[in-house]
Amino acid sequence: MLEKIRAELPELSISEVSYPERGYHLAMDAGREQILKVVGFFDKNGFYLEDLFCVDYVEYLELVYFFNNHCGLFRVKTVVRLEPDKPTAPTISDIYAIAHWYEREIHEFFGVYFENHPNLAYLFLHDGLDSYPLRKGTVKVPEEDRKLLGSGAYKESEDTFFVNLGPQHPSTHGVLRVVIKMDGEYILSAEPMLGYLHRMHEKMAENRNYAQFLPNPGRMDYLSALNFNLAYVETVEKISGIIVPERAQYIRTITCELNRISSHLLWLGAFLADLGGLTPFLYAFDDRENILDILEGVTGSRLTYSYFRFGGLFNDVDEKFADGTRAFLERMWKRLDIYDQLITKNVIFINRTKGVGILERDMVRKFGCSGPVIRGSGVPFDMRKLEPYAAYQHTDFEIPVAQNGDILDRYMIRVKEIETSLRIIGSALEKLPAGPFNAEKVPKKLKPPKGDVYHTVESPRGQLGVYLVSDGSETPHRMRWRVPSYSNLMTFPFLAQGVLIADAVAILGSLDLVIPEIDR
Amino acid sequence: MKTLIEFYPVFIFLLVSFGFTVAPMVIAFLIAPRTSGAKTLNTYECGADPFGGAWIRYASVYYIYALIFIAFDVDVLYLFPLAVSYTRGGNAYEFYSLLVFIALLALAVIYAWGKGVFTWKRKIL
Amino acid sequence: MIDQIIDIIGVLNIRVAIGLANVLGLITISAMVLTWAERKVAGHMQRRIAAKEVGPFGLIQPVADVIKLLGKEMLTPADVEKPLYYLGPILIFVPVLVSFVVIPFDARLQVMDVNVGILVILAFSSLSVLSILIAGWGSNNKYSLIGSIRSVAQNIAYEIPLLLSLLAVVFMSNSLSMKEIVEAQNDVWYVFKQPIAFLIFFIACVAETNRTPFDLPEGESELVAGYHTEYSGMRFALFFLAEYTSMLIVSAVATTLFLGGYKGPVLPGVVWFLGKTYFLVFLMLWFRWTFPRVRFDQLLNFSWKILMPLSFLNLIATGALLKL
Amino acid sequence: MGKRSFYLETKDPIIKFAMLEKVLDLARANSLWPLQFGLACCAIEMMSTAMARFDMDRFGAGIFRSTPRQADLMIVSGTVTKKMAPLLVTLYEQMPSPKWVLAMGNCAISGGPFVYEGQYNVVEGVDLLVPVDVYVPGCPPRPEGLLEGLMKLEEKITGTRRFPTPEKRW
Question: ipTM score of the complex?
Answer without folding.
Answer: 0.91
